[in-house]
Write a structure and sequence with these properties.
Layout: H1 3-26, H2 30-53, H3 60-73, H4 78-97, H5 105-112, H6 114-126
Amino acid sequence: MTTVDTVQSIFNDAEGMAHQAIERLEQGDIRDAAEKAWCSILRATNAVVLAYTGTEPARTPQTTMSLDSLAERDPRFNSLKNRYFSRQETLHGLCFYLGICEPGEAIERRIRETPQYIRDAKALVENRPPA
């Protein structure tokens, strides 16, 4: 499988998880929805990192450091980076791990915005400058 194929496969996985996240939210399981949304965001970010570096991060800290490094070199990554860190904290940390996920605007909005995050991540890959 080529890198391009792997990137697309990861994005497909991210889209599937985002769909599941919204389904779980609509079924009233906000905690599971938050974790599925976070997984989707992590997968989409891994696809971006792979597309730009040639290496898929094996663990979340590698994804985090790689995205931070990309953003330091290119401001086009700043929006993705800011949203990544916001979702890591709220969806993964507060809601899933700590169970602090009262239904309301902040958590639900971030879950529902997951497909847009993926679209923006894909746009960064599709519009990357030639190597």
